[in-house]
Each structure stands twice: as structure tokens, then as C-alpha cells.
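Need a sequence for this fold. Nothing fancy.
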């Protein structure tokens, strides 16, 4: 248990020390883990090959998951160079980590029973400035925003799914697409949470032993990429359905759901599979969380940006149609049902596309400083709260859904009164 806590402490230390806003934590962590494994293997070789002391009381050689300790004479203070796997090793290369070997030949322990160790010289020396404190508070705020957004989105989306699928009168192509969009949001939120959990498990508990622990982590990473793509393509499906209703018939029969299923759930496979193949062949390292060659990452990024751009163009096209219909309805005094459909559906097309279009040329490699903070904030906010907004606009604020809910509640109330009066 103590060893696990040591590793978790190291992982936490890495996440705190590495500048997250530069998006380098994943890459540094992967490199640190690789160096840690090398350090561990070198230590194990030393433990197995070095000859034992000829005489006298001594503390046994060991590896405590942080530093490698040689056989040491009783009653001495042992100094070992700071481990080279530390990301800030270049700053503390002259420092040492200390242990005390007791007179009885056992390493001295603290009151808690844990072996005493002084590693103050190996910690990163960094003056805490007001800017760094502000940055840490900003990261904490972003994480709270992320957590609250996905929690609210999950609750509202699941409830909205129950409503759309539970009431028969709400079953139609339009609501069927809405329901699939809700499901893609649910899967996206769950996949992100599972991926984060698997990453923590891999870098925490699984680092204790050399196993193929990265397999589960990679599967979670693949599922997350698929769910993110599916989410974007179901928004694409919403845009196409609205376009087919208002402007032109994109699919031959708008009452058929199969084309939308193929678009929303099938298209992402065409991009995820090549990405997986390239990861296996070229970047088969740990959890696939690091994109060393950004060309492979564009296999995932390109379809997202493409769908966002097409959605934005459809939005502009439909906006012209809505304006013309508004003028016509004002003249005739009879609003078209398609206009009501447009008002209910169109509101989310810019929500999906605009933030992607704004940052379409501001890639991760190019954004730095304040622009990166702005991009991270908007990305986290829209991705986490988007599900909540979708559920509200497509379900809870929908007049058709509210009418059906009121009718159903009235029916249940009447049935309850009949049962009560009958008894």
C-alpha cells in the first residue's frame, strides 16, 4: 500500500509541476514513465549483480519506487543522486536523496512505519509567483466547469431520452434523430470519464508492475475518439435533416432512418479504424494519449472540422430560407410548420459549428498564451454543457413535448382518481 501511495504521489507531483496550459503533461508523463522503467531495470540489475558485503551489519539494497539504494553500513546516512527520470532533473542533477541506516541493520522509519527519506534536494525549485497561483486557480476552475457541465448534461440527456422514447406520439424521424444525438452525447460523456479513469489507473496502480495494462487504456481511448466523432456526425445529421425539410431532399425518403444511422454511427468507423492502424504501426506507446506526429491526429481532426464547416454553411443557407419564410408568414398571417421546425432545430447548428469554425485555423500547435486559454475555456465549456443545451432546446423547451407531457400527466391523474374513488 505504501508503494502505491509513493507512485500516486509522484504522479500527482508531475501533474502539478508540469505546465498544463502548454498541453505537455501527457507527453512528459509518457517520457517520465519510460525513463522510470529504465531506472528501475538498472536498479534491479544492480541488486542482482553487485556482490554482498563481506562482513558487518548493513542495510539491504532495495528499490523503493523512487530511488535505488545500495547495501549500506549500519549507522550511516546514505546519499543517492536524484533519479534521472524526473522531468526537472537538469535542475537538480547535483542534488541527493537521503536515507538513514540504523544500527540494527534496518532502514530507519517514520512514526507511521514508512521508511524515512529526505528528497528535498530533488524537488523542483520554483518560486511561487502570483501568476502561477492564478494559473493553478484557473486550472481548478476549468476542472470544476468540466465536471459540472458533464454531470448536468448526463442527467438531462438521459431524462430527455426517456421522454422521447417513452411516449409513442413523439416517435417520428425528427425525434428519432434527436434521440440518437442525445445518445451520442451520453456516450461521449461516459467515454471521456472512462478514459480519464483508465489513464489514472494506468499511471497509478498499473505502474507497479510490468504488464500489458495499456490495453484497456487504449481501448478506452479508441472508444472516446469514436464517440466524439459520432457526436459530431449526429449534429451533421441534424443539419442535413433540417436542410432536406426546408430546402432540398438530401435523402430519397425522409421517413427512412437508415441513412442517418449510417451517417451518425457508421461514418466515424471510417476514420477511427485508420487512426488505430497508424497508432499500432507508428505510435504504439502506452495509452495513445500523445500525438507525436500530428499528421496521424488529423485523421480524427479533419472529419470534425469538415462536418463543422459544412454545418456552418448549411446554417447560412437555411438562415436565408428562414428570413424569406418570415416575410411570407408576416404577409399571409399563417406560419408554416416547417418554420416552427426550423426555429426548434436551427438554434443548435451554430452552437455546434461556430466554436470549431472560429478555431479552425487556430490549431493546438499554433495557439499560445491568452489565445490558448480562450480556446481551452470555450472548448471545455461547449463540450461539457453542450449536452445540457441540446436536451433543453430539443426536448424540454419543445412545445410538442410539453403538450404530450401535460396530456400524459392529466391522463395519469384521472386514472389515479378513478382508482381511488373505486376503492
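Here you go.
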Amino acid at each position: 500500500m505504501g508503494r502505491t501511495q509513493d507512485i500516486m504521489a509522484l504522479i500527482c507531483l508531475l501533474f502539478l509541476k508540469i505546465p498544463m496550459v502548454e498541453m505537455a503533461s501527457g507527453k512528459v508523463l509518457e517520457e517520465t514513465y519510460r525513463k522510470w522503467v529504465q531506472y528501475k531495470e538498472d536498479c534491479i540489475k544492480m541488486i542482482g549483480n553487485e556482490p554482498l558485503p563481506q562482513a558487518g551489519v548493513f542495510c539491504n539494497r532495495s528499490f523503493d519506487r523512487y530511488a535505488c539504494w545500495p547495501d549500506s553500513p549500519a549507522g550511516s546516512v546514505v546519499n543517492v543522486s536524484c533519479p534521472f527520470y524526473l522531468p526537472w532533473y537538469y535542475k537538480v542533477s547535483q542534488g541527493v536523496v537521503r536515507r538513514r541506516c540504523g544500527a540494527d541493520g534496518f532502514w530507519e522509519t517514520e512514526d507511521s512505519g514508512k521508511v524515512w527519506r529526505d528528497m528535498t534536494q530533488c524537488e523542483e525549485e520554483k518560486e511561487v509567483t502570483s501568476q502561477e497561483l492564478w494559473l493553478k486557480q484557473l486550472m481548478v476552475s476549468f476542472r470544476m466547469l468540466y465536471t459540472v457541465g458533464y454531470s448536468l448534461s448526463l442527467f438531462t440527456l438521459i431524462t430527455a431520452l426517456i421522454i422521447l422514447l417513452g411516449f409513442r406520439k413523439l416517435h417520428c424521424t425528427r425525434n428519432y434523430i434527436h434521440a440518437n444525438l442525445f445518445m451520442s452525447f451520453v456516450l461521449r460523456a461516459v467515454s471521456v470519464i472512462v478514459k480519464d479513469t483508465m489513464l489514472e489507473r494506468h499511471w497509478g496502480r498499473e505502474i507497479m508492475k510490468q504488464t500489458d495494462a495499456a490495453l484497456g487504456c487504449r481501448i478506452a481511448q479508441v472508444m472516446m475518439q469514436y464517440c466524439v466523432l459520432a457526436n459530431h456526425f449526429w449534429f451533421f445529421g441534424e443539419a442535413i435533416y433540417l436542410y432536406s425539410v426546408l430546402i432540398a431532399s438530401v435523402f430519397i425518403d425522409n421517413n427512412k432512418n437508415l441513412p442517418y444511422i449510417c451517417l451518425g454511427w457508421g461514418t466515424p468507423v471510417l476514420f477511427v479504424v485508420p487512426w488505430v492502424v497508424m497508432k499500432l504501426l507508428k505510435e504504439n506507446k502506452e495509452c495513445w494519449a500523445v500525438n507525436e506526429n500530428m499528421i496521424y491526429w488529423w485523421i480524427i481532426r479533419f472529419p470534425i472540422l469538415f462536418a463543422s464547416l459544412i454545418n456552418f454553411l448549411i446554417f447560412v443557407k437555411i438562415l436565408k430560407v428562414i428570413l424569406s419564410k418570415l416575410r411570407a408568414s408576416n404577409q399571409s398571417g399563417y406560419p408554416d410548420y416547417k418554420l416552427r421546425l426550423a426555429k426548434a432545430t436551427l438554434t443548435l447548428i451554430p452552437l455546434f459549428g461556430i466554436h470549431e469554425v472560429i478555431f479552425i485555423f487556430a490549431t493546438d500547435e499554433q495557439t499560445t498564451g491568452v489565445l490558448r486559454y480562450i480556446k481551452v475555456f470555450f472548448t471545455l465549456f461547449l463540450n461539457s454543457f453542450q449536452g445540457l443545451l441540446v436536451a433543453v432546446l430539443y426536448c424540454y423547451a419543445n412545445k410538442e413535448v410539453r403538450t404530450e407531457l401535460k396530456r400524459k400527466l392529466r391522463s395519469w391523474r384521472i386514472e389515479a382518481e378513478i382508482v381511488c374513488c373505486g376503492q
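For context: The mean pLDDT is 76.
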